[in-house]
Amino acid sequence: MTQRIDKALIAEQNDKLMPALLEDYDALARKLARQDIDIERITKQAELFQIAIPSWGTGTGGTRFARFPGEGEPRNIFEKLEDSAVINDLSQATERVSPHFPWDKVDDFKELKQYSDSLNLKWDSINSNTFQDQQDQQHSYKYGSLSNTSEAAREQAIEHNVECIKWGKILGSKTLTVWVGDGSNHPGQQHFQHAFERYLNSMKKIYAELPAGWELHIEHKMFEPAFYSTVIQDWGSNILAAMELGPQAKSLVDLGHHAPNVNIEMIVSRLIQFKKLGGFHFNDSKYGDDDLDSGSLHPYQQFLIFNELVDAQYRKQEGFNPNYMLDQSHNVTDPIESLINSAASVQRSYVAALLVNRPALTDYQLNNDALMASNTLKEAFHTDVTPILAMARARKGGAIDPIRTYRQSAYRATVAKQRPNSGGNGSGIV
Amino acid sequence: MTQRIDKALIAEQNDKLMPALLEDYDALARKLARQDIDIERITKQAELFQIAIPSWGTGTGGTRFARFPGEGEPRNIFEKLEDSAVINDLSQATERVSPHFPWDKVDDFKELKQYSDSLNLKWDSINSNTFQDQQDQQHSYKYGSLSNTSEAAREQAIEHNVECIKWGKILGSKTLTVWVGDGSNHPGQQHFQHAFERYLNSMKKIYAELPAGWELHIEHKMFEPAFYSTVIQDWGSNILAAMELGPQAKSLVDLGHHAPNVNIEMIVSRLIQFKKLGGFHFNDSKYGDDDLDSGSLHPYQQFLIFNELVDAQYRKQEGFNPNYMLDQSHNVTDPIESLINSAASVQRSYVAALLVNRPALTDYQLNNDALMASNTLKEAFHTDVTPILAMARARKGGAIDPIRTYRQSAYRATVAKQRPNSGGNGSGIV
Amino acid sequence: MTQRIDKALIAEQNDKLMPALLEDYDALARKLARQDIDIERITKQAELFQIAIPSWGTGTGGTRFARFPGEGEPRNIFEKLEDSAVINDLSQATERVSPHFPWDKVDDFKELKQYSDSLNLKWDSINSNTFQDQQDQQHSYKYGSLSNTSEAAREQAIEHNVECIKWGKILGSKTLTVWVGDGSNHPGQQHFQHAFERYLNSMKKIYAELPAGWELHIEHKMFEPAFYSTVIQDWGSNILAAMELGPQAKSLVDLGHHAPNVNIEMIVSRLIQFKKLGGFHFNDSKYGDDDLDSGSLHPYQQFLIFNELVDAQYRKQEGFNPNYMLDQSHNVTDPIESLINSAASVQRSYVAALLVNRPALTDYQLNNDALMASNTLKEAFHTDVTPILAMARARKGGAIDPIRTYRQSAYRATVAKQRPNSGGNGSGIV
Amino acid sequence: MTQRIDKALIAEQNDKLMPALLEDYDALARKLARQDIDIERITKQAELFQIAIPSWGTGTGGTRFARFPGEGEPRNIFEKLEDSAVINDLSQATERVSPHFPWDKVDDFKELKQYSDSLNLKWDSINSNTFQDQQDQQHSYKYGSLSNTSEAAREQAIEHNVECIKWGKILGSKTLTVWVGDGSNHPGQQHFQHAFERYLNSMKKIYAELPAGWELHIEHKMFEPAFYSTVIQDWGSNILAAMELGPQAKSLVDLGHHAPNVNIEMIVSRLIQFKKLGGFHFNDSKYGDDDLDSGSLHPYQQFLIFNELVDAQYRKQEGFNPNYMLDQSHNVTDPIESLINSAASVQRSYVAALLVNRPALTDYQLNNDALMASNTLKEAFHTDVTPILAMARARKGGAIDPIRTYRQSAYRATVAKQRPNSGGNGSGIV
């Protein structure tokens, strides 16, 4: 357990940074007070914000061309949990971890649960994996899993998902996220309708195994690994599938899985309206499913998505309770640093969206005052909420400047020694 | 009536071209016979193919930057019908015309019906227009029509659609197509959910006025004239709206209204599967809603769409009966030539799709033989069906080479004299 | 002259807002001081920032579908100058106006120059127009202007550009910006190489007429009005043309004229490196050349572009002296408000880019510390520089809150009475 | 050598198919004769057409998510050559193989040359690889190769390229193709200009080692593996680099390496015009660098590219002599089948482009007859040139139906037994 970040180190670092933080925080408090916003109410909400860490995100990612491993990468789910605990130590916003099976499969799930409890970590959505062949696997997924033309392959994929639910129950999870790589690379390869029907039939069998209180999240993706068509290519197919399955089925939005130029915040609104928004995989992208760090390229888009989410909360929209999770590929950074940074980036969007003057916005909308409506959002976005984020972390025992404190801790160098055979397979691929 | 194409001219031209056509047709017949395809069965289906002409397409189109009118443009719906009759004289595949109101509004719709009867033309889907302000209009659509925040503007837009139905009944149409320009140019300008709710409520009122046997077709568009969001931005919002409205509401696919890279043939398949494919606006595009001539850039995409349509026909898919219509902007060509050419281009895709060996394709699909599945489609696509198209036209009294015959007819020069004040507003804008 | 914004009104409004501004400004000064940044140095640079107003931007824009005019639109270049003066009264960052010929053509250019002098306005780049046909024009540009297959049409277009230079000399401009709509809508319509050769030959003739000290700016555009190909489609063709012409020819970057996903800040860097960055047309877009308000959708992209510009300034890059100009289409807002707002938005990016810690950034870059390099940019971007912008305006006599003061002034209502026949053609089309 | 396709099998299969082929060929000959085209002249040119096979393409490709190996994959360059020989046996259009180092590195390059000679195969362009780290490599390419901030890493990458030239000389190659994965994933990570300067300096050192008669081909790629920026992101940076280096440096066009919607045939024209078209990597794609089978999705685009190439040939454009090569990732098909099929697909575009009536096209272009210009291209494209392709193969000893004959040969099953440990690394990644 010595690898975790020493509380004394955090405290020492925070002590140095606190005077400046207090000065900025007070200035912001006065500014917000002039807008009739109580900074303490916002900071409280910032403290409550949580976003899950994907277990696989703690390893270095790569592309089909290469993977350049970093040092001290976690070699199994226990070490991934260690790294996740460090992230939460510093960020205080990531107490949940989302596992990926069979990558994170263990012999004794109760032991795994005890270990996560000991780290004060909880389990988020379970991710099944039927887009790769495992060594001992009977039927290949080369031509699909839940939509495969072979019934045996479909049954195998269904069975894997049912197992994931079983393991998730032990871990205390409440959600199964299903993303499949099924699709085609050639026109004609697949009969679109028959493939979708097979997919729906398979999903119905999985849905039937869902415990009460659980949700089944469907993830769509426009392309990759299939490059001509995918079975759940967009939110349209996604919501139709969720509607076919029933109320426990919802749609999950991964920010990188859309066609170019698509208005994602509008899709979020549609899913909210039809009570089908299950959750998010946050990341950023420029060209395709780039899986870059959340908010690193399009911070205003991230804000606009949270504008929809906070608005739904504000309107007390029925059935609104989405999951937040990061899903990124860290190819050139220390994964721990990127995850800390990205959690804060998403949290920043959430906090800024809390500052939007909603009654004024409604007024501008009803009067078609496009300019002032836009400026109302921008005023919130321009507000530098860094002091709120830092204060929320500090009050919960986290770091005011988590990257600096992490580097001071020398955690990476320490685990590099303890994980000599890291850099292998199974980690970091998103 | 002297403007129409002289049957003697057509016959004379066809006589010259017939020997070569017969030689090619016979060679193709022998080739198809080796594939167990009876060319006569295909030619018969080609003869039955129909695609509607948009009345506005007979004028020269333009962009926000400029419109460069051609000579002899039609100045009203009567002259548009004349031009449409010429197109059908030559192409024999375009006996229906789709009007646009109020552009084509007349004082006496019965007179208009008599005129179209006299030209052997029928009326296709009625297009309402609430994306422009008319001179005598009480409430502006600057900030939307069916989703406007003003109830008065919404009611005005509803009323216009109800009138369109009324006029359509006189003309013998059976479909109302609703496309609105509603949307926003600024984040925050519109509350996405409230705007969509207002849109749905307005559409419900229109739907309630739909006569038995009619369909209401909803057209989505990703952008333009609104550039940040549109109320019906994609097939997802489209099908949800159609489902909310009821069985007489269906989705219309305009090939140019999608995000870049989107797999349109797959959307067609999804709409077929959920019994919501209402019809098409055919055109081609490279960058946005370019409204280029159908099949001029992406002939294989057009073929793949017809592969889905012919497959649905082949499988006797329930509730499958879509409308076909051209919807193009002819900025640099004679609109009559482009419409003749494009009707033949769409017909070419249909005929080629009829040649697909579907039992073999099914086999390849079930065996995941991606390469041979792809080649099965390509074999049909590579087949030069020009002789079938030409023969189908010739047998029905149309022209073997319709562009050549049209130019020989000097129709354009003739109407240029008869329509001295053409080149004005109201035509060609798509 | 009574239409202009009363200085007393500005002063009165500023007086009310000054106490809060001072509080925020002081807090920001202290925060920046901790980063060793002297706020006064930054504010001084903010005061010097200038961006030109496009004369046509003062009218309401539209699309090929419709234009919804606002009230009191300027009816000629004199009224456009009045509106521009108002924008500068309030923003104090827009003392230059860019005219568009023949839209802004007058009989007596000296009189026009006297009028602009009287308003303390200067003239920015001259824009020629060979993408529309004018009423008295001998040769049509339907099939192109500088690249037309007809020599007479090309000569006419060249002659127009030479006239533009002549008028620009009277007005005191130093730049001619050439954007043409030349291109094609059909594969095969144009011989790509021959069209480009004709374009280059025409441009060489214009270049030969360029006075000493002038620059010729070439603007590329991927599509619209031509939808299959354009003669100067991207920065590649643009820079090659500029290199063929000579040192006075440079490339102009319009933010909306690129393919989806393109990294525009990188293009800016390349043009700087090869000494060919002439200037900018600022606007924002989501789907195509949407011409939305600058920074309204992608504020971080705008910042990243200014990061390149400030970096070039910092490195004292040879030959670096680009023009800044807005080029937007205001379809749903008061154009004056949008132009004020957008000038401030661009200025915001500039000021934020000044805050980047460049020595630290260089260090991170050399050490491949991608995360901290990214965070260094983000730290500057997150800083709310609103107080600097407001203070810079106030110190120069502009408005702390220019939109509010503008609305208080009732300028629009005043001119609405004075411009009874506004809402006509020639304005607002971008 | 028993693995190669038995000539007797080919002859036997061809004998069965020849009567039908002759019938179709004769019919096509008559049709072309009516257009004054001598089919024999076209068939002769088809026989001369050659396109290189990428050595790595003979293995199954994959994505970052998974690779699903096929059976009997080649385990080294000798087995890749065997497979290439089979492809050429059947297609008679692929006598050159393009190697990739260090993947295809051997101890004795003379032995390799002797082996390729024995198979009647020649060597195409040499591909260097500095986008992966090799096991024994001193400096990592994680942060770039030719543009790395570390001089030692740059020198290592330069040295590798110089070695590639050395090996290529032994093999009889005349071209080095350089594609690097250099770029960045975060704004700020890289200084764009400095990175490009480092790249250019490295390339100058490689260029200096180029033997007389060799060419250096630069390949650009918009993204992947770098997801925010790449050093040679588009044809603009590519041609500028080639111009900086000198006349032996040219640009290579990979069809999948462009932004969405980009007009690639126009880029081809520009490179031809500026004497910088080095060659092609043919493949097809829908979403990104999908590396699908050439012409499988966009056959008309492929034709339009060949329309430019044949036009340059027709105009005897100076310095025009591009390399053709396939570069695809075969994830769901037998790579040999895909390569045979794709070579024929590219050849089909070439042959169809030969049929374009160029004098007529020129006439239509000069008269701005967009419709007939478009139809002139379409007439050639619609012509089913399958009989020409088959006859060209048959006359050279290849297979009329190469896929069918390949399957009859049971080659794959045979090598599957001889290559027990296939399915490993190093193959198929594109």
Automatic annotation (TrEMBL), chains A, B, C, D:
SUPFAM superfamilies: Xylose isomerase-like (SSF51658)
Coiled coil: none
Gene Ontology terms, MF aspect: isomerase activity
InterPro entries xref list: L-rhamnose_isomerase (IPR050337), L_rhamnose_iso (IPR013451), Xyl_isomerase-like_sf (IPR036237), Xyl_isomerase-like_TIM-brl (IPR013022)
Domain Xylose isomerase-like TIM barrel: 101-291
Keyword Metal-binding among UniProt keywords: yes
UniProt keyword list: Isomerase, Manganese, Metal-binding
Name assigned to this protein: L-rhamnose catabolism isomerase
Source species: Catenovulum sediminis
Phylogenetic classification of the source organism: Bacteria, Pseudomonadati, Pseudomonadota, Gammaproteobacteria, Alteromonadales
